C-alpha cells in the first residue's frame, strides 16, 4: 500500500459552489504537494436520484473542466464510470453486505423518506462508495461527519471480506479532515451552501460578477444597527459571521468595516477577485474540450492499472 495516497470524489449533482471551492477544491489542491492524489467525478453516484441525461452530461463536463481549472492537474483525474472496476467491485461487495445494514444507513432513511419511488442504487450507494475507496488502498480517509457512517460501513465490509475470503483489502483509518472553511447558504445561513440546494443562496463558481453581487446583496443578515454590528457570533449572527468568514477566506479584510452595506460590497469584491482567475482558466479549457476529455481518459487508464490487482485479488478470493 502507498502511505501517502489520497482519494476524493465529487458528485456532479449540481453546479460547484464557493463552498465546494473553499471546503474541498482548495484542500485538494494543497494535498497534491504531499500525496499521490486520485480525484474522481462520481458520475455513477449521481444516478441514484432521477435527473435528465442532458443535465447530467452538462454537469459532468462542467465539473471535469472546473477541477482542471482549479489547479488539480498534478493529480490523476478520472470519471468513475470510465473505470469499470468501481461497479464490478461494488457488486462483489454487495455479496458481503446485507440489506439490513444498508437499510439502517441514516442518509438512505432520510433521502428515501422524501421520495415516492426509491432507486435500488440509493440503497446500495454506500457499497459503491466502499468500492471507490478500497480499490485504491488508501491507508487514511479524511471524512466529514455526514459520511462517517458510510466510512464505518466501508471498514466493516473490508474486514468481513478479509475474514470470509482472505486478506484482500487494506482497512483504512478514518481521519478528521483538515478544517477548511464551512460556507453557509446566503439566504439561509443556518444550513450549508450546497450545489444540490437552492440557487439563490449559493454562489456557483461560474457565476458572473453581477450575479455574485446580487446574491451577496440579498444575503440574510440581521436587524442589529449598533456600532459593533459587524462581528462574528455563530449563534446570534449566523449571516454576518458567514459573510465575514467568506471575506477572510477570499483574502479580504474586515478592517474598518462598520455597516452591512460596506461588508457586502467588500465580500462581493473579494469573491469576484477569487473567482476571476478560475473563470478565465475555465474559459480557456472549455474552448479545448478534447484536452479535457483526453486528461480524464488517461486518468481513467492510470486508475485501471492501479485498481486491477485489487479487483483481481477480490475475484480470485471469492472463487471466480
Ligand atoms: P454539496 O452539498 O455542495 O453537494 P457535497 O456534500 O457533495 O457538496 O460535498 C462535496 C465536497 O465539498 C465535500 O468535500 C464537502 O466537505 C465540501 N463542501 C460542500 N459544501 C460545503 C460548504 N458549504 N462549505 C465547505 N465545504 C463544503
Ligand atoms: Na450534497
TrEMBL record:
Belongs to the class-I aminoacyl-tRNA synthetase family. InterPro entries: aa-tRNA-synth_I_CS (IPR001412), aa-tRNA-synth_Ic (IPR002305), Rossmann-like_a/b/a_fold (IPR014729), Trp-tRNA-ligase (IPR002306), Trp-tRNA_synthetase (IPR050203). GO terms for cellular component: cytosol. PROSITE patterns: AA_TRNA_LIGASE_I. It comes from the Bacteria. Its EC number is 6.1.1.2. GO terms for molecular function: ATP binding; tryptophan-tRNA ligase activity. This is Tryptophan--tRNA ligase. Pfam families: tRNA-synt_1b (PF00579). One of its GO terms (biological process) is tryptophanyl-tRNA aminoacylation. The keyword DNA damage does not apply.
Amino acid at each position: 500500500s502507498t502511505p501517502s495516497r489520497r482519494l476524493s470524489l465529487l458528485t456532479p449533482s449540481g453546479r460547484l459552489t464557493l463552498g465546494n471551492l473553499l471546503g474541498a477544491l482548495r484542500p485538494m489542491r494543497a494535498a497534491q504537494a504531499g500525496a499521490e492524489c486520485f480525484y474522481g467525478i462520481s458520475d455513477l453516484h449521481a444516478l441514484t436520484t432521477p435527473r435528465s441525461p442532458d443535465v447530467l452530461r452538462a454537469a459532468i463536463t462542467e465539473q471535469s473542466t472546473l477541477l482542471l481549472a482549479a489547479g488539480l492537474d498534478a493529480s490523476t483525474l478520472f470519471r468513475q464510470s470510465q473505470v469499470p472496476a468501481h461497479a464490478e467491485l461494488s457488486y462483489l461487495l454487495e455479496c458481503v453486505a446485507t440489506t439490513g445494514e444498508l437499510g439502517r444507513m441514516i442518509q438512505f432513511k432520510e433521502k428515501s423518506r422524501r421520495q415516492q419511488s426509491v432507486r435500488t442504487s440509493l440503497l446500495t450507494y454506500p457499497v459503491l462508495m466502499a468500492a471507490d475507496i478500497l480499490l485504491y488502498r488508501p491507508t487514511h480517509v479524511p471524512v466529514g461527519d455526514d459520511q462517517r457512517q458510510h466510512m464505518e460501513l466501508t471498514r466493516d465490509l473490508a474486514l468481513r471480506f478479509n475474514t470470509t475470503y482472505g486478506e484482500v483489502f487494506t482497512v483504512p483509518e478514518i481521519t478528521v479532515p483538515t478544517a477548511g472553511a464551512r460556507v453557509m447558504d446566503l439566504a439561509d445561513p443556518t444550513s450549508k451552501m450546497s450545489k444540490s440546494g437552492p440557487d439563490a443562496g449559493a454562489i456557483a463558481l461560474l457565476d458572473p460578477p453581477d450575479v455574485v453581487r446580487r446574491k451577496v446583496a440579498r444575503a440574510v443578515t440581521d436587524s442589529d444597527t449598533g456600532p459593533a454590528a459587524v462581528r462574528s457570533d455563530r449563534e446570534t449572527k449566523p449571516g454576518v459571521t458567514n459573510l465575514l468568514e467568506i471575506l477572510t477566506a477570499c483574502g479580504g479584510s474586515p478592517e474598518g468595516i462598520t455597516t452591512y452595506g460596506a461588508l457586502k460590497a467588500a465580500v462581493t469584491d473579494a469573491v469576484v477577485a477569487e473567482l476571476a482567475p478560475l473563470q478565465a482558466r475555465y474559459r480557456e479549457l472549455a474552448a479545448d474540450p478534447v484536452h479535457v476529455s483526453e486528461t480524464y481518459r488517461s486518468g481513467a487508464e492510470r486508475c485501471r492499472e492501479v485498481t486491477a490487482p485489487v479487483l483481481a485479488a477480490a475475484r480470485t478470493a471469492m472463487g471466480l
